[in-house]
Amino acid sequence: MATYSRILLLTILLISTSIQTSAEKWSNAPPPCNFPAIYNFGDSNSDTGGMSAAFGPIPPPYGQDFFHGPAGRESDGRLIIDFIAEYLGLPYLSAYLDSLGTNFRHGANFAAGGSTIRRQNETIYENGISPFSLDIQVTNFDQFKSRTSELYHRAKKPFDKSQLPRPREFSRALYTFDIGQNDILDGFRKLTMPQLKAALPDIVEHFASSIIHLYEKGARNFWIHNTGPLGCLPAATLYITNPKPGFFDNYGCIKSHNSMVIEFNKQLKSRIDKLRKQLRRASIIYVDVYSAKYHLISNTKYYGFTDPLKICCGRHENNFDVWCGQTMIINGSEIIGVSCSSPASYISWDGVHYSQAANQWVANHILNGSLSDPLFDVTHACLNH
Ligand SMILES: *[C@@H]1O[C@H](CO)[C@@H](O)[C@H](O)[C@H]1NC(C)=O
Ligand SMILES: *[C@@H]1O[C@H](CO)[C@@H](O)[C@H](O)[C@H]1NC(C)=O
Ligand SMILES: *[C@@H]1O[C@H](CO)[C@@H](O)[C@H](O)[C@H]1NC(C)=O
């Protein structure tokens, strides 16, 4: 059972200026980067089968709306990383942890649901925190790079090389990141708000060390998502009774949680500004996923979605919670956490993870670069652009 999926539950846009600058940029029309591969690092927002391979498959109805069955993803269909792959004309990423039916010719995915930037000193059996913290994912990458290169050079027949990345393409690949939300969610659980706030610089510094390490190993093109509005996750708001006035914002999101995320994002952005000066031969793009998600949540009707705090899959009633894909016997009757009839009209698929429709909406709003700093479309997110 996907314990880590439950865990996570414990788990204004600047458009006018962007359009202008972006238009200026396009008038010079630089050629696209033609990334040969994507290497992704992250948590359940971009896990395409890592935790499923390591700890047991995610059950149906996950995956039902695109893959026609569970596909190692915590959604009813594609994740933002899948839309990035589509946009770049590359195949969906196989998980590094998955030993079956994988193809790494155009990249690999090191993301694992429940992962944090910092090591958490707890096992997955406590609160679903993944053992694959960002530093471990980077270690996995190092090993992936050296071993695939070795295998590639040793391979005699073209077939033996067909599922391996070209060693020379590592420096031209796109390195994508979507991680941080579980450090913050874990902090909400274990620390006071001032303690968590005081820990943010260390979390950001660990993030930066991973980027620096990858740069030293030859990575040059980085696409880094900030963290979304965690205070708007239905799972976070589910158990709150008798909130004090002002606890929620106009859309029902927990204000203090979102403020913490905004502070994390601010520190991340400023650390990335410094990294850009430090790592001279890199293109490092900071992507404001928070604004995209919050804009969607605050305009759900306009974009054709239902109440952002409603969950499509799972059943939550006064006396019980049956999470998506789970079955419980309650007073002798079996209750199943099934999918709603119209997943595409929900933002939240299971209370923690976004639906495919919402992921697609967010992807449409970030991939063209309008929420990027600097303002690059993902196809132009490389050096010399
Ligand atoms: C990017 O796409 C979004 C969604 O389609 C659109 O609202 C925005 O204006 C686009 N921005 C640019 C710079 O093309
Ligand atoms: C984990 O434990 C080590 C050693 O006690 C400590 O330095 C580190 O800060 C802890 N990590 C977290 C996230 O609490
Ligand atoms: C199960 O039955 C007991 C006794 O009738 C009742 O108090 C309780 O609320 C029921 N639980 C649920 C989840 O319906």
Account of the 3D structure:
- The chain contains 13 helices and ten strands.
- The N terminus is likely disordered.
- Helix 6 runs parallel beside helix 9, helix 8 runs antiparallel to helix 9 and helix 12 crosses helix 13.
- It is 37% helix and 11% strand.
- By secondary structure, it is of the alpha/beta class.
- It has a single domain, classed as 3-Layer(aba) Sandwich (Rossmann fold), CATH 3.40.50.
- It has a six-stranded mixed β-sheet with strand order 2-1-3-4-5-10, with helices on one face. A two-stranded antiparallel ribbon has the order 6-7.
- The chain binds 2-acetamido-2-deoxy-beta-D-glucopyranose (3 copies).
- Keywords: Glycoprotein, Hydrolase, Signal.
- It holds the Pfam family Lipase_GDSL.
- InterPro entries: GDSL (IPR001087), SGNH_hydro_sf (IPR036514), SGNH_plant_lipase-like (IPR035669).
List the topology elements:
Layout (H helix, E strand, L loop, with lengths): L2 H5 L7 H14 L9 E5 L7 H6 L24 H8 L19 E3 L14 H4 L6 H21 L3 H4 L12 E5 L2 H10 L2 H24 L4 E5 L8 H4 L17 H24 L4 E5 L1 H9 L16 E4 L2 E4 L3 E4 L2 E4 L19 H11 L5 E2 L12
Parallel strand pairs: 1-2, 1-3, 3-4, 4-5
Antiparallel strand pairs: 5-10, 6-7, 8-9
Helix pairs in contact: 4-13, 6-9, 8-9, 9-11, 12-13
The structure holds 2-acetamido-2-deoxy-beta-D-glucopyranose (3 copies).
The site of one 2-acetamido-2-deoxy-beta-D-glucopyranose has 4 residues, from loops.
GO molecular function, one term: hydrolase activity, acting on ester bonds
Family: Belongs to the 'GDSL' lipolytic enzyme family.
Keywords: Glycoprotein, Hydrolase, Signal
